[in-house]
Each structure stands twice: as C-alpha cells, then as structure tokens.
Amino acid sequence: MVLSEKSLYNTVISFIFITSVIVHIPPLIIRRHAIFISYADTTSYMEDLNISNTTKLYTLLLLETEPKHGYQIIDDLEQITGKRPTTSHIYPFLKELSDRDYVKTHKEGRRKIYELTQTGEEFVNEQISSFTKILDAALQDKITECNHCKCKIYGEGHKENQKTYCCKHCAKADQN
Question: Using CB atoms within 10 A of its CB, is residue 51 exposed (0-12), middle (13-18) or buried (19+)?
Fold first, then answer.
C-alpha cells in the first residue's frame, strides 16, 4: 500500500486508536495533520501538572488549536473520544492551568474563554515534540522507499525483481 505521509499518519491513527481501545495502549493526539502518542510521564512538567489522563492532554491540544470556552472543550472531547467528560473533569484542570499561567481567560457574554499563553504554548509544543519522537521511532521500521521515485512506502508496496516500488508504473519505469 502506498500512502502519502498524511495518509500514512491517518492510517496509523486509526489502527492505534482501535488498538488502544482494546488493549489500553496510550491514545493518539491529532494536531494539525500530525499525530502523537500520549505518555503521561514524558516530562517533569507533565508529572508536575499531574496530567494523568488523556482528557487533560486532549484539553491542552484543543486549546492549542484555538481559544475555547469550557463547554466547547467538553463537546469537542466528546466528538474525539466518544465519551462526554463531566465538568468536574474539565473545570478544575482549566483552573490549574490558569493558576500556572498556561492559560488566560476573558469573558464573551456569560462565557469564560480559555486561551493558551506563550508559556502554555511552549508547554504544549514540548509535549508534542516528545510524542513525535515516539511516533517516528515506532514507524521507522515499517517504512521503505520506492526504488524509482524514492517516495515513502508503508507496508509492502509493489515487488518486482526483488525490488520494492510504490506502484507498477515505477517498477516499469525503473526497468527502462
């Protein structure tokens, strides 16, 4: 199977997400066309903040995409995970983030909008960098290169004359 990098990540997202539900491996985080595996013990910041579950991690990543009010976060988490978190899962964590200056708030009507601060963005980016390294290491052994066009191939690809190609067209072009 030949996949673009984005398609490869989407395929891996689906596979690992389904697997994570069955065997409880760390779930994936989707951020701007990339994925990340969440491990709560990747940095001292995570331990210090006691991000002990994926709800907290998803909350941070949702805030990284745009400012949101609490119920928006709850609705988005329900869409992502299929389970609706309670306010007792979200609001104490948002208060903790605010107390640590990772988020700032402002009012829009009756709603309090939460937005990552520069420190909060740096924190999220540090976590994402850690997750990217984990994912890259996990995928490295599964990716080969087309002998002709040098594109990345996830899986077996098209085999001919003991060479691997992304498609039969590259195999034919390589023989010419």
Answer: buried
pLDDT, tens digit, 9 for 90 and up, residues 97-112: 999 999 999 999 999 9
- 8 A C-beta contact, residue 6 and residue 33: yes
- Indicate which CATH number applies to the domain containing 59: 1.10.10.10
Rg (CA), the chain: 20
pTM: 0.55
Q: How distant, in Å, are the alpha carbons of 2, 110, 167 from that of 161?
A: 18, 68, 13
Quick one: which of 122, 131, 172 has its CA closest to 148? 172
Map tokens 């805030």 to a residue: 63
Alpha-carbon gap, residue 8 to 135, rounded angstroms: 12
Helices (H), 36-111: 44-49, 54-65, 70-81, 87-99
Shared domain for 13 and 87, answered yes or no, is yes
Question: What letter does residue 21 receive in the DSSP assignment?
Answer: H
Residue pair 116/64 in contact (Cβ under 8 Å)? The answer is: yes
> 71-94, pLDDT tens digit by residue?
999 999 888 878 888 899 899 999
Domain that holds residue 147: 143-176
